[in-house]
Design a protein that fits this description.
- The protein is an all-alpha fold and about 200 residues long.
- It has two domains: about 100 residues, RNA polymerase sigma factor, region 2, helix turn helix motif (Rna Polymerase Sigma Factor, Chain: A), CATH 1.10.1740.10; about 80 residues, Winged helix-like DNA-binding domain superfamily/Winged helix DNA-binding domain (Arc Repressor Mutant, subunit A, Orthogonal Bundle).
- It is about 65% helix and about 0% strand.
- Helix 1 packs across helix 2 and helix 2 packs across helix 3.
- The chain is globular and about 50 Å long.
- The C terminus is likely disordered.
């Protein structure tokens, strides 16, 4: 018998009841995507891991206390928790000054190697981060939820509690702006003819 999907109500009920196997299944299914979303926002592995853990603690508390009542929309609910935890951290960080090592100041951009070993990867990442910085916070959020968390547009609409059509249009405009900033050709030069 195949394993149930990680958002299966019976699996979630077993996880809420303390079934370790059910918890492992839920965490294994969602932790990498939650981590990727948070890491894309903060660009700090340790902080992303800390926030990801906080997301799953919150999820466990809410499931255990019967605080999850959005049947059939678990994924959107979980990623809404992730976005809220990230925003909480960002607000807290804005209120606190953090010391910066002088060597770090001189080093400039993050040049750690990524999963590919292309020679121009650090430069490409720096260009992409700079281009993302030209987007509004709301548009960056949509891009991160779609391309790092892997959510569908319907799920993003649930997470952000915004109309689906609005999100689709903003995502399209955000990608077009990124292409322009990066000097790449638009995928749809005759956008008015696209269906």
């Amino acid at each position: 018998m195949p394993a149930p999907p990680p958002d299966d109500p019976s699996l979630l009920a077993r996880a809420a009841g303390g079934d370790e196997g059910a918890w492992r299944c839920v965490v294994a299914s969602y932790a990498p995507r939650v981590f990727a979303l948070v890491r894309s926002r903060c660009r700090d592995d340790d902080l992303a891991e800390e926030i990801t853990q906080a997301v799953f603690v919150t999820m466990a508390e809410k499931l255990g206390a019967g605080g999850y009542d959005e049947r059939g929309r678990f994924e959107a609910w979980l990623f809404r928790i992730a976005m809220n935890r990230f925003r909480d951290h960002a607000r807290k960080a804005k209120r606190q000054a953090s010391p910066v090592d002088p060597v770090t100041l001189d080093a400039g951009a993050d040049t750690r190697p990524g999963p590919t070993d292309g020679a121009d990867r650090p430069a490409d990442l720096a260009r992409l981060r700079e281009a993302l910085g030209t987007l509004s916070e709301a548009d960056r959020e949509i891009v991160h939820l779609r391309h790092h968390a892997g959510l569908t547009f319907k799920q993003i609409a649930e997470v952000l509690q915004e109309p689906l059509g609005t999100l689709l249009a903003r995502h399209h405009r955000a990608l077009a702006k990124l292409r322009k900033v990066l000097g790449e050709p638009d995928e749809h030069p005759n956008a008015e003819h696209a269906s």
